[in-house]
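Troubleshooting entry. Yesterday's outputs looked truncated, so today I'm pasting the complete records for two proteins to confirm everything comes through intact. If either block looks cut off, that's the bug. Protein one:
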Amino acid sequence: MPEIKIAASDGSGEFMAYVAMPKTMPDTAPAGAVVMIQEIFGVNSAMRALSDWVAEMGFIAVSPDLFWRQEPGVQLDPDAGQAQWDRAFALMNGMNQDKAVEDLKASVAHACRMQGANGKVGTMGFCLGGRLAYMMATRSDADCNISYYGVGLDGLLGEAGKIRAPLLLHIAGRDKFVPPEAQAKIQEGLRGNKQVECHVYPWADHAFSRRGGHSYDARAATIADGRSAELLTRVLG
């Protein structure tokens, strides 16, 4: 089941999602699901590898194509030159993020009903996806949400009071897209919210968890991924 189709809640069509299933399914107990939220490069090989990693932990991983309203099937390579980055930023700037959240909600609802699922669903997003994971924490009923180096979160702090489920933030200390003043604002704005756990990796750069990428940092990724795994296990079973 490498790819499935999910119906958009606004009736505008269907979008593709990459699916990775636990190897032990369906003979074992039902599994929790994780909606994996793409970077600005689409559901590319990096997102599929991350989804496979989540499946290896025993969860159902669903990674929806959030650029489908502009161009379906986008798979860009961030290490293949400036043209790929230019196209990625154009797609990000052209995205209606409110619609993207609705597509993610549809993905969560679909994941709840998948064969072998136990009805519990979290989200995990990276970069743009990290921003959308935060928005899912404030706008959806996902059981938990995980944001890796989410961009622009300091501009979303007005929604923080709507967070009702566990939210885990991984912040890269050397992230040029989230400067130190923004990082400080995020931490201060979320301080005291018992649902939020925020970790800063001072030595790491943006995209430190992208396997094989130029900014991959094994130490930061291992620590962050362990924290993510613990939360998913605790909340999703």
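Protein two, checking that the full record survives here as well:
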Amino acid sequence: MTETTSTFDATAPSFDQYRALPPGVPEAIRTAIFRGVHQQMRVLDLGAGTGRIGKPFVAANDAYVGLDSSWAMLREFLASSPAACLLQSDGQQLPFADGAFDVVMLMQVLSGAQDWKALLLEVRRVLRPGGVVVEGHTTTPPAGVDAQLKRRLSEILREMGVAWHEPQKARRESLAWLEVSAGHRSQVRAASWIAERTPQEFLVRHRTGARFAALPAAVQEEALQKLSVWAEATFGPLDKPYSEEHAFELEIFEF
């Protein structure tokens, strides 16, 4: 395999440290997807990353294929799941035949997609007639620490004149596109948990975000400094913990 570079390569070693799901949540996601299914399903995990969701599928010997643009992320996956079937590829040019999969998973993918329509056209191509597309994302309280800091950081970057991706807009538009062509759409809350969050943890974690890490170092430092000042004025001590309910929700489209 020829390895190509990705914006996620640099963040791969620390990805799970800051973004791993709580124990039992990945298994609950798999259970929710397979609920009521009695035959083996061919599953494509598009944007498999380090395997934080795919590992239970591998452990259960499912017909699972994980694909990601970052070989560094997949290498982390293989380190803990050496039996995993993984491929490095661009999601807009999938190396599979038409109708190759029964299920295509898009976990935390659509909000970061630069060209979501091209991606979804490929997803539909490799999905068999009657197949299922499963979009998954973590939800947090709108007034929670993470949500407030994300909004303020976006404002700071715009004020600095930095072009910044609008993740929620991309996700809304792509889900609407899927709904138009799907026969049925349903929503499932696969799992929920209480998370402890601090402003300081957000500041540290955000340095490892692929899009943010791709910005010039001087821009990163200025933005985080401004965000830190705002966070201290808003929340008080940056290491003060806040308890929030987080959940992992699935949007299931049947075709």
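Both blocks look complete. Sanity check on protein two: The two ends are 33 Å apart (CA to CA).
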